[in-house]
Automatic annotation (TrEMBL):
Residues that span the membrane, as ranges: 32-55
Organism this protein belongs to: Sinocyclocheilus anshuiensis
Keywords: Cell membrane, Cytoplasm, Cytoskeleton, Disulfide bond, Glycoprotein, Membrane, Signal-anchor, Transmembrane, Transmembrane helix
Locations listed in the record: Cell membrane, Sarcolemma; Cytoplasm, Cytoskeleton
Recorded GO CC terms: cytoskeleton; sarcoglycan complex; sarcolemma
Name of the protein: Sarcoglycan zeta
Keyword Membrane assigned: yes
Family label: Belongs to the sarcoglycan beta/delta/gamma/zeta family.
GO terms (BP aspect): cardiac muscle tissue development; heart contraction
Topology of the protein relative to the lipid bilayer: Single-pass type II membrane protein
Gene for this chain: sgcd
Length: 190
């Protein structure tokens, strides 16, 4: 369409300069955008600094964290450690030649569960004493000889000599069978 065909168009010649429109953000919008970018940069720097500080304080290395090292046999924990929740492990042992200390403000409990998660045996060492619960209790010497055994049916004392040190001696409510009874040397047998 030519100019002659458009009657509504202004017949002003283009002697004026064409208007240039500015593209972009100006004024308070630009200041808010710069402020937001600056705030994000500060947050990123603070986050990075805190992450590096946590890594340094927790002593993270390629081998593990702090006193906890990852080895081919499992986890190795060096030094004193505190567990706030129950500890589940297949095996716990100390370094060769060093004792293993278990310390608690209340008690130390060792529970043995079967495959159905039912309690089979239990050992509780607390301030009131040591309590053991299970089907059988055995005490053996370092050579492997049975010293004491107890189950629901009988109690066996496997030592070569049984000595009763109480002031009242030994009291039996039923019969006693023994191949040999003797008193201490130069003491009378009653």
């Amino acid at each position: 369409m030519t100019q002659e065909q458009c009657p509504h168009r202004n017949n002003v010649q283009s002697t004026e300069k064409p208007q240039v429109y500015k593209v972009g953000i100006y004024g308070w919008r630009k200041r808010c955008l710069y402020f937001l970018v600056l705030l994000l940069m500060i947050l990123i720097v603070v986050n990075l600094a805190l992450t590096i500080w946590i890594l340094k304080v927790m002593n993270f290395t390629i081998d593990g964290m702090g006193h906890l090292r990852i080895t081919e046999r499992g986890l190795k924990l060096e030094g004193d450690s505190e567990f706030l929740q129950p500890l589940y492990a297949k095996e716990i042992q100390s370094r060769p030649g060093s004792p293993l200390f278990l310390q608690s403000s209340k008690n130390v409990s060792v529970n043995i569960l079967n495959e159905k998660k039912q309690l089979v045996s239990q050992l509780v060492a607390g301030s009131h004493g040591v309590h053991a619960r299970g089907k059988m209790l055995e005490v053996k010497s370092s050579a492997g000889k049975l010293l004491f055994s107890a189950d629901d049916n009988e109690v066996v004392v496997g030592a070569e000599r049984l000595r009763v040190m109480g002031a009242e001696g030994a009291v039996f409510s039923n019969s006693v069978e023994t191949p040999h009874v003797r008193a201490e040397p130069f003491k009378e047998l009653r």
